[in-house]
Amino acid sequence: MKDLYFDSIVIGGGAAGMAAALELAASGFSCAIVEREDGLGGILTQCIHNGFGLIEFNEELTGPEFAERIEEKLAGTGITTFTGATVMEMDARSEQKTMFCYSARWGVLRLSSRAIILAMGCRERNRGNIRIPGDRPAGVYTAGLAQRLVNIEGFVPGKDIVIIGSGDIGLIMARRMSWVGCKVHAVVEILPYPSGLTRNIVQCLHDFGIPLYLSHLTTRIIGKGRVEGVEVSPIENGALQPEKAFTIPCDTVLLSVGLIPENELSRTAGVELNPMTGGPMVDSMLMTNVPGVFACGNVLHVHDLVDYVVEESRRAGAFAAGWLRGMRPGKEARIKAGANVRYTAPVRVDLQSGAKIYLRTLIVKNDAVLDMKVNNRVVKSLRKTHIQPSEMIALELSPQDLHEVLDAPDPVLEISIA
């Protein structure tokens, strides 16, 4: 077993982990990245479509190109990378934190540091998670698995496709499967609005004439040896209408029914998780309830764009560097998700330095007003021309927005939408 010490360790070598590590290295601290796959880049390596980098690099890139741009910056920084290594245990209770990693290449590693950044990303929900009734035939895949089969392995999983759920991966795979010669018969969504970005609805469904069934539930998967079809029932006024059910013939079903932040390791380390996001509860420094343990990217909450992931992860790296220098959070206000707000990240804001806050709404609305109140006193209002749950909202609060309530006892910042 090898014993190694670094000032900081980043778990996860995707865009989030690399961006956070670069910020730590730029601040003069030694840093290691631990990645369980054989290479860096995370999920980006299989996302060969374009649409990445418009914010970060001001140009349109594919996923592998975006990952390569970030990875190229690691050269000469002194950042140590352990690829093909899985963190199995982590003890973060003391000032010096320890983790055990297992790897065919590196053997057993015991890594120690004063700061840890969680950047493990997220995974897809599967059929078992959403309990779709019916038979158990071959031909049911998550959209991400199908993406890997087509883009990396060179296999087409079927010919006649139905996609359950309208998440971004499913929408992108509807287009991808059309490009490789498959017939995508439908995208079926239980909600009355799409779960993916508007641009993906237009580019991946409308441009290819693929029907989108909103307010429809997949009530049965049909097939013995192989998928033969799916039974779909409409939802009207919140009630399922089984008498109006119809069957869509197909030989393959792709599931795009949401993502779950990968936090099993976080939980064993004592990190408190937000039940609304599945990610850690973090303060204005993106630090969890465990001192010196930070979180960023999709392990914290699921982002729309990798550009947002990189921006947030840079801040996490900068905050971790500040922590190593002795910086600590100032007086903070707890953030409360008010009317029509599903969640916020972080869940606390520093009254003296402000914070960048990401949130998701519960409603679809044009001309919406976001109110930010501290102890029922409005400190800032913003007007949005359009909001929907599939598109994340970013807010910035400055110290000037909060200075009038700095001395308020037990301040609570409530964010609501009307």
In short, what is this structure?
The chain is of the alpha/beta class and 418 residues long. The protein is built from 9 helices and 28 strands.
Write the SSE topology.
Elements: E1 2-5, E2 8-11, H1 15-26, E3 31-35, H2 63-72, E4 80-83, E5 85-91, E6 97-103, E7 107-113, E8 115-118, E9 122-124, H3 127-130, E10 140-142, H4 143-153, E11 160-164, H5 168-179, E12 183-188, H6 198-205, E13 212-213, E14 216-222, E15 229-236, E16 239-240, E17 246-249, E18 252-255, E19 259-261, H7 264-268, E20 293-295, H8 306-325, E21 332-337, E22 341-345, E23 348-350, E24 355-361, E25 365-374, E26 377-387, E27 393-397, H9 399-402, E28 412-417
Parallel strand pairs: 1-7, 2-3, 2-8, 3-4, 8-20, 10-18, 11-12, 11-18, 12-13, 21-28
Antiparallel strand pairs: 5-6, 6-7, 9-19, 14-15, 15-16, 15-17, 21-23, 22-24, 24-27, 25-26, 25-28
Helix pairs in contact: 1-8, 4-5, 5-6
Structure in words:
The chain is globular, with a radius of gyration of 22 Å. The strands form seven sheets. A five-stranded parallel sheet has the order 4-3-2-8-20, with helices on one face. Strands 10-18-11-12-13 form a five-stranded parallel sheet. It folds into three domains: 192 residues, 3-Layer(bba) Sandwich (FAD/NAD(P)-binding domain); 132 residues, FAD/NAD(P)-binding domain (3-Layer(bba) Sandwich), CATH 3.50.50; 83 residues, Immunoglobulin-like. Helix content is 21%, strand content 35%. By secondary structure, it is α/β, with parallel strands linked by helices.
